[in-house]
Amino acid sequence: MIELLHQTIEFWLQAHWSIALLMSAVVNIITYVTASCFFSCFFKWLTEHQQMGQHVDNRPLKAGQVKREIKQGLITCLVLAACSLMTRWWYSGIWPAGWGLFAWQVLLFALFYETYSYWVHRLLHGRTFSSVHAVHHRSTRVTPWTAYSVHPVEAVLIGITAPLFILLLPLSLGVAFSLHIMGMVFTIFIHSNFQLRANRTLARLLSASAYHVRHHQNGQVNYAFTTALWDRLMGTKKAS
Ligand SMILES: [Zn+2]
Ligand SMILES: [Zn+2]
């Protein structure tokens, strides 16, 4: 599996930019569609047939909402693919030399992402970018498809996260790719609008979705995505 990924990344690096763009777009679209379908169906099944969970927000979806979200989400996948081409200029190797370096790259990128995504999100809620971020907040009750239903300008701000990091610190392409796919799946998950009824430990693990749903209900709180670190520091955290 790792070998296949390694060979695919090598091919992507040497390919003409148009082929590399196509490959990135296909991977993003497959991840977006597969993860959104999975979370939609799995949480619907848990809610309706197993009575194990419930929606965090029960307001009805808007007319044509999911269709609009999918269309916007597919455009975002293309923008993310275009941004990924920047990593072909600045990357440092396909894999880090050893597990120690691997751990450092993951830790530093996680810290960078945590800080960058929080402050960009706050900027998007400011007056200058309010019409840009309004595209994402048109979905008041979220669905997994909402995750990438964003304005192309916001898509660029998301897409340049890894290229910006690579300008500052070394990041191997294999690590960047793996974190990107995990990040996409996680972003789709937090838009699932689902919380477990039973099992406290598991419910706490899945509470990231309720945390972000509160942001869609009240745009002044819960700006963070992965941990509540910056929300705690800046007093913008609202319990899920
Ligand atoms: Zn959202
Ligand atoms: Zn927002």
What features would you describe in this structure?
The chain has a two-stranded antiparallel ribbon with strand order 1-2. It has helices at 2-14, 17-48, 65-84, 87-90, 99-124, 130-137, 152-159, 161-168, 173-190, 200-205, 208-217, 229-234, and strands spanning 53-55, 194-196. The chain has one domain. The protein is mainly α and 240 residues long. It binds zinc ion (2 copies).
Gist?
The radius of gyration is 18 Å and the shape is globular. The chain is mainly α.
Q: How far is it from the N-terminal to the C-terminal residue, by CA?
A: 38 Å
The share of residues in extended strands comes to: under 5%
Biggest sheet, open or closed, and with what strands and sense? 2 strands, antiparallel
Please identify the oligomeric state.
Answer: single chain
- Kindly provide the radius of gyration, computed on alpha-carbon positions and rounded to a whole number of angstroms: 18 Å
Total count of domains:
1
Arrangement of strands in the largest sheet = 1-2
What does the overall shape look like? globular
Which residues form runs of ≥5 with pLDDT under 50? none
Q: What is the helix/strand order?
A: HHEHHHHHHHEHHH
Question: How many strands appear in the DSSP assignment?
Answer: 2
How many DSSP H or I helices?
12
Residues in helix, %: 55-70%
